Amino acid sequence: MTLQNLSQITTPYGLLDEGTKDALVAAWEAGCKLESFNGPYWLHVGYPNWRDRTVYRVKAEPVRRTLYRDFGIVGRHVISCNADGTEPTVTWEPAP
Questions:
Q1: CB 43, CB 54: distance < 8 Å
Q2: What is the pLDDT of residue 77?
Q3: What is the DSSP string of the chain?
Q4: What are the residues whose beta carbons fall under 8 Å from the beta carbon of 67, sequence distance 6 or more?
Q5: How far apart are CA 46 and CA 32, in angstroms?
């Protein structure tokens, strides 16, 4: 079970197969952040109670995309943002 799969869980904990439950607990013990579904929102869970009716998942980390704009011998701009286009950052890398 990959972390990406664990971040897509929508089934209550009590209905998960034992392998998925074990993987979820192991991910939390390894330091992954967990969320639980509460109404329309996913909320951070510091210490899960592992209740059968609660939906738990590993919090998905944002994917960053990077674009390089080269200026030849001088250097390049590096533009990064989340996959949805939010949180852009621009840095300058001088040529070696």
A1: no
A2: 73
A3: --HHHHTT--S-GGGS-HHHHHHHHHHHHTT--EEEEETTEEEEESS----TT--EEEPPPPPEEEEEEE-TTSEEEEEEEETTS-S-EEEEEE--
A4: 78, 79, 80
A5: 10
Which residue, among 79, 84, 42, has the nearest Cα to 92 in the 3D structure? 79
**What's the pLDDT tens digit per position in 11-57?**
999 999 999 999 999 999 988 889 999 988 999 999 999 999 999 99
Tokens for 47?
A: 């210490």
Max Cα–Cα distance, the chain, nearest Å: 60
Residues whose CB falls within 8 Å of the CB of residue 24, separated by 6 or more in sequence, listed in order: 6, 9, 13, 16, 34, 56, 57, 58
Q: Which two tokens mark 85?
A: 């286009």
- Other Cβ atoms within 10 Å of 42 Cβ, number: 16
